[in-house]
Amino acid sequence: MTTQEQLYAGLDLDLSWSERDLPERERTKHVHRLHPYLGKYIPQLVEELFRRHVPPRGRVLDPFAGSGTTLVQALESGLDSTGVDIASFNCLLTSVKTREHNPFVLERDLRDALARFEHGDGAAAGASAYLRAWFAPAARADLLRFRSLVTDYESADVLRVILARAARSARLTTHFDLDFPRTPQKETYWCHKHKRECKPIDRADHFVRRYTLDTLARLKEFAHARKRRDAVVLHGDAREVELHGPFDAVVTSPPYPGLIDYHEQHRYAYELLGLDDLREREIGAAVRGTSKAALAAYCDGIVGVLTACRAALEPRGRVVIVVNDRRDLYPQILDGAGLALEQRYQRHVNRRTGRRAGEYFEDVLVARLD
Ligand SMILES: C[S@@+](CC[C@H](N)C(=O)[O-])C[C@H]1O[C@@H](n2cnc3c(N)ncnc32)[C@H](O)[C@@H]1O
Questions:
Q1: Which CATH number applies to 4-97+232-262+272-369?
Q2: What is the pTM (predicted TM-score) of this model?
Q3: Positive or negative torsion for Cα 40, 41, 42, 44
């Protein structure tokens, strides 16, 4: 059996934080908590990786930008950045987090939209079959009314993110399964989280209010923390979009086979906002599961993305990949993309919440052009 000492000897302790060193509040500071997102990495890890591998005022690329952690931290660290994602909701979220909002317009728009919503304005029209199945009638009417007001404002995209967050909270799910709900929960149920009987949510107005005010506060806080650097968000397949290099480094956490379906995770947002669905190009989910064929498609996909990144990288640039590669796929992937592994840090991850709570180890692979 491995002793704790042996276990920790192989770890990079500067990249491993305990809950006490780095409480939830810090990990979800300002815009990092604008909307829940499964499978993001923590901002403090990204900050440290920038310090180690990106020159001051450099340019960084994240081909799997997700909820935008890399781009947000690049703005805080004074770096220019570009992020690509295949999931349009993720691009919307990242773009709302990173764009420069006029503080007066933002405050006026959000407060006005909320006041009108609370006054009963807006039309509750246009419910799809999904919306009829997953929301109680009053919750659905609240969301549809708020949706009908969104386009009246310059800050429409911010309001869209608020609407999506309210919808996520108002779905007919149990409290303990917000991440992967399978069927709508219409009856009272025994709640494993609260250890009592709970009722499914039947309205959304309180979420709209709470998240409008919270979003305003978080965007204002980030406006003080950020530097004036570029953050470009590209919606598309990272194997194909034009990346406009050269970049000093790639810093990313890729999808992993059979773990999270990034389109399905935010289904409510696609349904409510009518977003473009490109799931057939989503690596790790387009071919479902972990069969041999799915793993081969996954490896090909990541090789394709890293090959495109390689072509956009400065010759002395580094590719930094955060991944829990339990299937040992990455030696072959790096090789296929013409990259050579230079360093591997192992970090200890302490996951405190959600159905996937528990501890595990994660690798940070640092590669250079071969
Ligand atoms: C692990 S997540 C990234 C999370 C991110 N580091 C964060 O902190 O939010 C992987 C992302 O890769 C995206 N993705 C999957 N296939 C892609 C493709 N072909 N091109 C671009 N992005 C893709 C998924 O939509 C998902 O958002």
A1: 3.40.50.150
A2: 0.94
A3: negative
